[in-house]
Each structure stands twice: as structure tokens, then as C-alpha cells.
Amino acid sequence: MQVKKLTIPDITQRKLHGPPISTLTAYDYPWARLMDQAGIDVILVGDSLGMVVLGYSGTVSVTMDEMLHHSKAVARGVERALIVTDMPFGSYNCSHAEAIANANRLLKEGGADAVKLEGGTEMAKVAAAIVAAGVPVQGHVGLTPQTAGSLGGFRVQGRESRAAKKLYDDALAMEDAGCFSVVLEAIPAPLAAHITKRLSIPTIGIGAGPHCDGQVLVMHDLLGLYDRFIPKFVKQYAQLSQISLEALTAYKNEVEQGLFPAEEYSFGMKEEELDKLLKELGG
Ligand code: KIV
User: Fold this and answer.
1) In this structure, is residue 167 part of a structural domain?
2) How far apart are CA 104 and CA 133, in angstroms?
């Protein structure tokens, strides 16, 4: 059966009509397929892949080539969800021409439907330039992992009124730039509620409380596949590290004990063919 692909208007109108927008990160074909089957609305090819898939200590070293590689794999597995691919550090904090060229590549080669970039007021002009070039953009304000160092590390943003007002202005600036949605990361729930009320585009929260128009989590966090750092806002819906470790160890033990592969996992051969072979081998 032909599945209807979600569009940007399908997502934006959920702000008024609900239900809340479910978003998850994915980085490859099998998980993207499963998420699509589960009915996840937006699949984010996040640059968090640098940490959870490639083993980097942060997201700054992620390249355009890496984002393209993973975005293509995700796109091959998705029929329904909207695909948003992160613009990596250095791909949009440059000339507008270069930023537009990079955003175009993520759509043309990476199979994305939209791109996401981090930053507020200071990134509004480049976001507007990409939108004007015809590429849908999702903003990302609050804790922005690419610049976490200058924000004092991976910590909640906007707890004091002045910092909160700056984040409020940042979110507005992304709406004014023409973004179709904005991610709010690690900010107090009441601030996220005020921003969500004020904006006419959907807010997608991660560590931003229950009042956003949608939620996003990193799939490795949700599935219990990454334990180097588990933020307070993460709910682990499964413990796949443990289950996987048990399966891997069982395999290793069965190989060592000669229990795998048993007969049901092996191919046979007709008796007469085996006899012929043995004759040929002089047996
Ligand atoms: O890269 C990513 O996974 C993200 C989410 C944390 C929103 O940007």
C-alpha cells in the first residue's frame, strides 16, 4: 500500500490541531525503517551521530560528508516521516552562499526534506538566506551542542530571567527568519511553555518540559544504547545495550563450545554427490 509522505504543512498544522509531533534521531537504514513503521512523524539525522555512532567526544568534528552518508541511508528506509538533517558545525557559520550550497546538498544528495541549524539571533540571517533559497529550515536554540563549550558545557540554559529573555528572543528570531519549526533544548519548562505560546511555528522540546508542540530524543538514549552520558531528561524505554551484550556473549560462547552452527543452520549435500566428490578427491 502506498504510504503518504508527511509534508512541512502537515507538521506545522499540528501546532493548532495536534497531536503532538513525535521526533527521533536515526542514522541508518534499519532503524529509520523501524521508526517509520512505528509512525514517528519526523526523523532527525542529528549530528549527535558524531558521539553515538562515530565515537567522537562532541559534534564539532562531524563533516558534511558524514552527514550526507547517514542521511542517504536514512532516506532509503523512510516512506512516511519527514526527514530533517542537521547542518554540521562549519557548514552554515560561513558565507551565505556556502551555507545555501551545503543545505542544497543535504536535500539533493542526502534525501532530506529540511535542514536544522543551531543558534538564535546571531544565526537568523543565514537561516533566512537558506529559507529564501527554498530549503525548509528548523531552528535549534537553548543548549546548542555545537557551541556547548561557550555555554559552559552540557547544562540547562535560561534559568535566570535575562538569559531566559535572550532565548525567547532567539526563538522569535528563528520564526522571523522563516523557520518552519524550532527545537528547544535543555531549557526550563515554564520558559518553553511561554515560547510555545508566543510562536506560531511548532516547538520541539528535548529537556524542555511537556508544553512544547512536539518532543525529540536521541534514539541511542531512548533505547539504552549509549551510556557515556545520560542527561536527566532522557527516559530509557529499553535497555538494548544489556540485551545486545547478552546476545553477543552467548554467540561467542557457543562458537567456542562448538555449539554454533548446529545442524539446522548448516547446508547439506546429496549423498551421491558427496560420494562423487570423495572419489574425485581420491578418498
Ligand atoms: O543532533 C541531535 O541529535 C540533535 C537533537 C539533540 C535535537 O540536535
Assistant:
1) yes
2) 9
Q: How many domains does the chain have?
A: 2
Point out the residues that are catalytic. Answer: 185
Per-residue pLDDT of 226-253, as tens digits, reads 888 888 999 999 999 999 999 999 999 9
Tell me the CA–centroid distance for residue 243 and ligand 1, in Å.
Answer: 25
Q: Which is the closest atom of ligand 1 to the Cα of 218? A: 3
**Ligand 1 atom 5: the closest Cα is on which residue?**
46
- What's the whole-model pTM score? 0.96
Let me know: does 228 contact 206? Beta carbons within 8 Å. no
| Nearest residue to 43 via CA among 68, 4, 80 | 80
2 domain residue, yes or no: no
Measured CA to CA, the distance from residue 54 to residue 57 in angstroms comes to 9
Asked if 63 and 181 sit in the same domain, the reply is yes
What are the pLDDT digits (tens) for 183-242? 999 999 999 999 999 999 999 999 999 999 999 999 999 999 988 888 899 999 999 999
> Computed from CA positions of residues 70, 76, 77, 81, in that sequence, does the dihedral angle turn out positive or negative?
positive
Check whether residue 186 and residue 263 sit in a common domain: no
Q: Which of 75, 112, 115 is nearest to 92 (CA)?
A: 115
Q: At what angle do helices 124-132 and 161-176 cross, to 10 degrees?
A: 20
Residue 86 CA to ligand 1 centre (angstroms):
8
35 CA to centre of ligand 1 in angstroms: 16
Whether residue 181 is found in the same domain as residue 52: yes
The residue whose CA is least distant from atom 8 of ligand 1 is 46
Distance CA 85, CA 114 (A): 6
The C-alpha angle with vertex 147 and arms to 141 and 148, in degrees rounded to 5, equals 90
What is the crossing angle of helices 64-77 and 29-38, to 10°? 50
Q: Please indicate whether residue 48, judged by its CB atom, sits closer than 6 Å to ligand 1.
A: yes
**Could you tell me the residue range of the domain that residue 119 belongs to?**
8-238
